[in-house]
């Protein structure tokens, strides 16, 4: 093989091989990469970005703070592993067995978890926003509600609505979720849906004898209606001042509603 061909081959090998930059125990790391069999291994702080570890046996191994972002761990045996603080963002964990694994602080954002074996309790302290394949019943209502509020604060209204939809599947009588989703709908300019949700929240707060929540919901609903009317009036007069003023008022109401939602039990 010529020099040029060898360079190309080495380049491809480097590009396709997982990025394993360091490990507490290099021998264990090499064993994992060559055999995919590494039970009770010391792999903490390992760099295994994009590692191809489908079906790997890692029972009882220490993977604290390991970087497994984008790794393929589909069907892997991860029973009793210690994954505290590890990054598994966008990793494929479909069908993986995580029975007894410690997942405190693990980053599972946008990971694929279809048919993965684990319990809701294991996910209590994990970061799982955007994870795919999770059954809605596997997570508590409060997680979805909190993520929805965070999405509103970040201006990601579509994502907020998807979280609130999931929250309402868990707790269909949550007034705070309807009120939160009303804000997200209005952020997308979907005023009719925002009004409907604000009205639903108002009625639920009333039935729950929560006058503050009822008041906040009513204020939001009436302000959205007023904004619609002023925008329509401004449009018929060839201007946009009325709409801008109404939207400014709406912004003030929303700024008042969010602190209420953040400080009130869901």
TrEMBL record:
TPR repeats: 141-174
Record has Zinc-finger as a keyword: no
Residues making up the signal peptide according to the UniProt record: none
Keywords: TPR repeat
Keyword field contains RNA-binding: no
InterPro entries in the cross-refs: 5peptide_repeat, Pentapeptide-BTB/POZ_domain, TPR-like_helical_dom_sf, TPR_rpt
The name this protein goes by in its record: TPR repeat
Lineage: Bacteria, Bacillati, Cyanobacteriota, Cyanophyceae, Synechococcales
